[in-house]
Amino acid sequence: DILSGVSLHAETVQIPEDDSFTAERKTCHLLEKGVVAIFGPISKFSSEHIRSITDSMEIPFIETRWNYRSQKIIGSAGGYAFNLHPDITTLGTAYLDLMEAYQWKTITILYQDNDSLMTIQQILKKTATVGPMDEFRLVVKQLVLNENGYRDVLKEIFLSESKLIFLECEKKILEEVLIQSQQVGLISQGYYFFLTSLDAHTINLEDFKYGGTNITSFRMVNVDKPEVQNVIYSIVESMLDQELRMSNINIT
Predict the structure, then answer these.
(1) Distance between CA atoms of 111 and 168, rounded to whole angstroms?
(2) Neighbour count for residue 10 (Cβ, 10 Å)
(3) In sequence order, which ranges of 127-211 are alpha helices (DSSP H)?
(4) The 3-state secondary structure of 12-28, one letter per residue
(5) In whole angstroms, what separates CA 61 from the centre of its chain?
(6) Most confident of 9-23, 58-72, 163-177
(7) What is the mean pLDDT of residues 192-214?
(8) pLDDT score of 96 more than 80
(9) Radius of gyration (Cα) for the chain, nearest Å?
C-alpha cells in the first residue's frame, strides 16, 4: 500500500463562483486544519487565487477545470500544481483527427468566446497548410447572445446551408444552443454536429434524437464499467446524504 496505516478524510467546502475573497478565507481555514492537498474549484479566478496560496505553502493543488496552459507550465512552480483536465493541444489534435477520419471538408465552427478559440487552435492552424486547390474550408462564427438568444447566428448558418457544424461551448449553454438550433431548423436530416464539451453526454439529448441529425462528442470515461458505476453511485449517495442532512431529514 502507498499509504499503509493512513486514513484520508475528504472535506468538501463550497464557495461562490469567482469570489476570490471567500476562496482565500476558506482555503486558509483548511490549511489551519492541516489538509495535505486541495482539489481546486472550477472557477478560473478562484482557482488561480487558491493556487498562489498553495504554492507558497508547498501544498499540492489539483484542479480539473479547463486551462489553456499546458501541464508543464502549470506544474513549473515547484511541482505542486496538477491539472487532470486533458491538455487543450491534445484535445485539439483529437478533434482534427476526427474531422479527417470523417473526411469533413467544409466546416462551420461555432465558438463561445476567446477561450473557445484556444481550444480550436489546432484546427485553425490547419488552414495555414491548405493549398488553393484543397477542398478543406472553415467558416468561423461566434455564438453572440442578444434579445433573440443565439438564434440570429444559428439562422445565418441555416441559410448558408452548411451541414457540418463544430460546436465549441461550455456545458452550461450547450443545451440551450441545441434547443435554439432545433428551432431554426439545424437539428434535422442531413446535419452533423460535433460537440467539444467533454460533459456533453450529461445533458438530455432525448428531444434531438428523432430529427435525423448526427450528434457526435468525446467522453473520457466509460460509464458502463462496474468500477465507474461504483464511483458514480458513491458520489451521488454522498450528495444526497448531504442534501438530506441540510434539510434535517433522517432516514432509518
Answers:
(1) 5
(2) 7
(3) 151-160, 171-184
(4) CCCCCCCCHHHHHHHHH
(5) 19
(6) 163-177
(7) 90
(8) yes
(9) 22
Mean pLDDT over 195-219 rounds to 89
Pick 237 or 169 by higher pLDDT: 169
What is the identity of the amino acid at 2?
I
CB atoms < 10 A from the CB of 98, how many?
Answer: 14
The closest alpha carbon to 99, from 24, 178, 192, belongs to: 192
Helix 20-32 to helix 44-57 angle, to the nearest 10 degrees?
Answer: 30
The alpha-helical segments, DSSP class H, found in the chain are 20-32, 44-57, 71-74, 88-102, 114-119, 121-126, 151-160, 171-184, 226-246
CB distance 41 to 15 below 8 Å: yes
Please give the pLDDT value at position 213.
92
d(CA 252, CA 250): 7
How large is the average pLDDT for residues 174-178? Answer: 95
The band of 180, judged by pLDDT with boundaries at 50, 70 and 90, is very high
Phi, psi of 139 (to 5 degrees): -120, 120
Cell output for 63: 484542479
Averaged pLDDT for residues 170-184: 94
- Helical spans, DSSP H, in 161-221: 171-184
Is the distance from CB of 115 to CB of 91 less than 8 angstroms?
A: no
| The one-letter amino acid at 9 | H
Three-class SS of residue 176?
helix
Bridge partners, residue 146, by sequence: 149
What value does the mean pLDDT of the chain take?
Answer: 84
Helix (H) or strand (E) holding 214: strand 214-217
